[in-house]
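User: two proteins, same treatment. go.

Assistant:
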Amino acid sequence: MSQCTLIGILDEGWSELGERARDRILHAGLIIGAARTLDLVRPHVAADARLLDMDGALAQVPEWTRSALAAGQSVVILATGDPFCHGLAPWLIGKLEASHVKHDIETLPAPSTLQQAFARWKKPWQDVRIASCHSKDADEWTFGAPPAHGLYPLMQAIAQHRRVFTFTGPENDPSRLARALMTAGFGAARLSVACRLGLPDETLYHELPPEKAATMRFPYPNVVLVERAAETGSPAFGLDDLDYLQRAPEKGLITKQEARALSLAKLALRPDAIVWDIGAGSGSVGLEAARLCRHGHVFAIEKNAADADIIRQNHDAFGVANYTLVHDRAPSGMEAWPDPDAVFVGGSGGELPELIRLILRRLRPGGHLVMNFVTLENLATALETLKVLAEDAGKTAEDAEKPAADAASAARTESQTSPVHESALAPSPSAAEASGVIPAIHPALRSATGTLHWDVLQLQAARSKPILHMNRLAAENPVWLVSACWQQTSPDSPA
């Protein structure tokens, strides 16, 4: 009876295999593996057995297996160590099941490379996060690299966990990883490297500093353990203003702690949220958002060169890998960003109406826009733009172009009383689109009905300041927080 067996094998080869694994290899009609693993068993296979090299041909392995089983042959597939530990087992089993292969797949793992490495280093491994960069050449890590970068999952894991074990690749080697750590602000980390485990030229390195490892050459194959010092326990939310570097002419150019905390709360961030930070300033809002959205990503833009440099320094201090900074004037380059779940506007550079239109067109269903203003003029502009955008969705171009009577006066009144506003949103802005008006709604919302909700909050904090050896409350200038979101309504929902 034909059978399929996935066998884990180490570089010690045949001598380290169990009796069951040896028997499966001896009676296999087809043996599939990388050239290195095939060489380990080649002297022990049946004379009429076929050996197929899967290097560069991994996608063909399921069909090779299916065809051999259909012909009544037993199949052995060789993998390194434990095939379920960042190995090919889950992928292969899924492919064979999708091809309706009716044979059970037996798995006979060897001790994993991870187990071997930690035994050699004499370190426990029950608390490590396992990652991998054993993939195509990812290129060097750069400041603010986006999620598409090949090292991104690994760098995210390092930012989130104190101990990370990773399988490397020929190009994505320990020296590249060391350089990435220094670029990402993890220069105090230490790397332990295990090279060519189980072979006569096995080489071990213990707790190398990144600056040393970055210039070394390591024999391949190898694996790496990255260890960082224990976290200091700094909060992810509500950091003190003094925790951030700031450009300070007369006062620090930073979203103050009170406004920052309320703004982050109004953004309603999920762990996997995509966040835009426009007019990033010192980076305080975006960097705290990155700490809160550990499985998401923050895209920030800042036009001032001095502020952009300060953001980079703050980024290095807080150890986040899910943050990309663009030094430019919004909205330049933002068309390449993924649609956001949350957007914070701390500065608009005189482009506020255009930015609000762009944001609400791209904001995902259920997403939130939060804007901070310190002038009534910008507040009035924002509220007028929100009203017009909501009306544009259900009007023709002619209707949309009609000026709102007393809009500026009404906005000033609204900012003082801070009421909640609602405007009806039609199911489809097809008329506005046909007339050249920029659509106001994310495409996912165009088949539904909903409402554009927004509210205005005036925040006037008072801080205790020492004067003549006494303390008194000194009022800060007011800040207006405007938050807006599309709220989708199901057609079946009661009115």
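Protein 2:
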Amino acid sequence: MKKFFNSRKTGKIILSALTVLSLSLAGNPTVLACTTFIAGRAVTTDGSRIIGRNDDSEDLDVVKIVRRPAFNKKAPWTFTSTETNFTAQLPAHGYSYLALPSAGLKPGYGTWDEAVLNDHQVCLTATESIYANPAALVADPYVKNGIDESVLPTIVIPYVSTALAGVEFLGSLLAQYGTTEGNAVVFADAKETWYMEIYTGHQWAAIRFPEDRYAVIANDSLLGNLDVTDTANVRTSPNLVKLAREHHFLQENNGQIHMAHTYGAPHRDYSQLRIWAAQKKLSPSQIGDYNVDTTYTLLQKPDHQISLAEAMDLFRYRYEDTAYNANTHPNNRAIGINRTAEAHFFWLRDDKPQTLWVALANPEMSIFLPLYGNVTKMPEAYTLEAATYNKDSAYWKFRSLSALAVQDRTGYGQEVRSTWRKMELDLIKNMPDLDAQYRAAGSTSQAANKLCGDVANKALHTADTLYQKTWTAFMLSTVQDGNSKNATANKDTH
């Protein structure tokens, strides 16, 4: 998620008539955002590992798809952030990687590579904002010019060839430079997934994610009892336990440190409701009624195997089948919200191409599109740096359509959702055919560019058609009713 504090100012921006609705969801006073999902091989329908995140923002972000080039410098070099005063010494060699950077409304916004997949098929989603308790922050305060979300993927992913190496390299950077904020991140490669929580200036913990569990993280520390001596499955900062013990905030259970109780912030509805709703959806036999004071555990077993399509739908979930329906109770923080900048899933399949699925703007009214990891060039519409409205930008096409569709979710919004849903299910169903074409063409970057580009262009054409139909329906409703039907009830800026 993106936190701006003093680096950006939220405000009303007046653009063309076509962008007014898009900007209605840009401003938001909260700095809390994002929802992360992880599933191991044993709990998915196809034996894949699924890792995803809703990249929610408090401001208007415009996302593009790029390939960052590999590089070989003569010596270690100094990285300098364009967003903050952070600098770091980094290795001379860096791998190429696929990235989803976002542009802000002001110059010097920074890199913000929100999801990345490098040449070694190591992926990283970063970051899920989490928060530490006051005692922990007194003991180890945040570092003013330390690592933050805007640079974290950029200074890690080019330099690692495994998921565990990503955890360890980031840990070494945190020891040296510290962090400005609390975050959770997920690393994965062809063999395993690692989940990492960063609590205070220099303290963090990570676990090898078990293959028989899933997790939903929503701006809360969720790691429970941790055996710091289990080096096969756990990594931590060197002074994690010592610091907590010396400053009298250590919470132990059977000789193990309980991470959420030791370093985590108090529970909030903002986070807890999302965790409960997702767990209730996937594990209904095990999860009772909602209670903000319940400590929802990180690792859960689903009642049924989880498909990629179900995971995608989870990122659209607004609790429609519960008493907390965000469409009728707009103050409830849903998983699917209007201010999502993009959503993504890494679909990690054994013996098959690793794939990044991307939905631009709010996934509720958008479509997840597949990208093979070695894509080097997408259609120009997907690569435009368009911080203000640009009719040729893929991002603005999806954002404008989404902004219109949420004005009446049960009316013309339903057609938008159903159209994208059908296309999305067809894409997932036909992935074996796409994989076969990809392999027949030598699994080259050129093949990836062509196949993924064709899918992306078809989605653009569909978005244009849907926008025309939805805009017409919207205008008819204003003529008939004097204002947008159900506009107030259906808006969500939380």
